[in-house]
Design the sequence.
């Protein structure tokens, strides 16, 4: 079946550092890929998405590129802020069969220190 | 923000009692989902719905039932709550857009404690 693997956390950075959170996936067909963010005490919210190979999703300074050849969708940000501290989830949907049931990674906690 | 609410937001109950959680949406989205979130397990799908009165089981459905009698409401029932069902429960909705680009919108969550 489909699966999403994210790097283990927590990831701890100083403010203004460069961020990478790795995400790889296994899926049949041609899924759409997503990054969601969850701030403390809240539900998940969509951060960015990409719907086909080589697409780049971007939002709030975060970027991720859909790499079909490496089955990856790594999240990056050039300069993190304390307010970026949250849990980040990589997800896919739209692979063949069960297209409306997303598959989530386990989440990566990001802690940014001033 | 997508119009999705959950009630109650917090609940403490005792083992063996029935509990019903409500998810309400104002987006007229077709798909609705119930997840639970626990440390070390990420998000796990309990049940989902693909239309009024159309529901199916997710990966952790034992001990839970659902009902959807209207597009806007999706109810999750714990028939006889157990301590292992202590968790944070999230409802999500999605619309079937062109192709398969079904991003989800999540509610604020319900924190349930079973004593």
Sequence:
């Amino acid at each position: 079946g489909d699966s999403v693997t994210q790097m283990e956390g927590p990831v701890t950075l100083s403010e203004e550092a460069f961020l990478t959170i790795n995400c790889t996936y296994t899926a049949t067909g041609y899924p759409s890929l997503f990054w969601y963010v969850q701030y403390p005490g809240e539900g998940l919210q969509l951060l960015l998405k990409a719907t086909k190979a080589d697409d780049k999703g971007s939002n709030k300074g975060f970027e991720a590129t859909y790499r079909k050849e490496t089955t990856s969708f790594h999240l990056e940000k050039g300069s993190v802020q304390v307010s970026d501290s949250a849990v980040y989830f990589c997800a896919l949907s739209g692979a063949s069969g069960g297209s409306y049931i997303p598959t989530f990674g386990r989440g990566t906690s990001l802690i940014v220190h001033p | 923000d997508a119009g999705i609410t959950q009630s109650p937001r917090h609940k403490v109950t005792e083992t063996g009692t029935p509990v019903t959680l409500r998810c309400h949406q104002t987006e007229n989205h077709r798909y609705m989902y119930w997840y639970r979130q626990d440390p070390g397990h990420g998000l796990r799908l309990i049940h989902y719905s693909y239309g009024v009165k159309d529901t199916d089981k997710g990966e952790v459905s034992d001990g839970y039932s659902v009902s959807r009698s209207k597009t806007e409401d999706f109810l999750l029932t714990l028939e006889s709550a157990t301590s292992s069902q202590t968790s944070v429960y999230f409802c999500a909705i999605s619309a079937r857009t062109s192709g398969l680009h079904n991003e989800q919108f999540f509610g604020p969550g319900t924190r349930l404690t079973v004593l």
About this structure: The interface with chain B takes residues 31-32, 34, 36, 41-46, 49, 51, 89, 93-94, 99-102, 104-107 of chain A (CB under 8 Å). The CA atoms of residues 33 and 67 of chain A lie 10 Å apart. DSSP finds no helices and twelve strands in chain A. The mean pLDDT of chain A is 92.
